[in-house]
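Before relying on records like the one below, remember that each one covers exactly one chain. Contacts with other chains, cofactors or solvent are not represented anywhere in the record.
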Amino acid sequence: MNPSNLHIGRTSGVISGIISVNDYLCAQRLNRKSTHKRSLVFAEVLASCGFAVMLVDVKWGVVVLGAGVGAFLGEYLCANLVLPRKAKKLHAQRKELANEVIYSWDAEHLEAKSSIGVSKMPWSHFVKMKEDENGFLLYVSDNLFQMFPKAWFPGEDAIDGFRKLAARIGEM
């Protein structure tokens, strides 16, 4: 769909695009953002406890500190090595991601169309929404989401209009 043909209003709009590997990776990072933060906090607390334990028992302090450093390294490797490789692999496996997706919405429904089918859902069927600088995730369950890259929107007004509708998720 040509961006010049897009219609965006306060409560309705249409966007389209092909989900790239980078779009997919950004969505996966946003999906696990709270887990990433919790893991880093856990690693920091563990390492801090290790320093505190060293004041009493050096041997156990080093063990606890090592566990904290290991937790940090594990999360770093997961976020920066494992996740990008996994996202690239999953993107390649999902053949439908190679096709254009057209999203349209109004105050009542969100519709997705592609070469493999059509889905039309009331906003009330979504349970939560997440947003970052790259896009939106609208969840139909705790781990199943639809992604909306911000690059597909024609401008900030369109993003704001979509955000206002999506912000009602959970209130319906």
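The helical segments are 21-31, 33-54, 58-93, 156-166.
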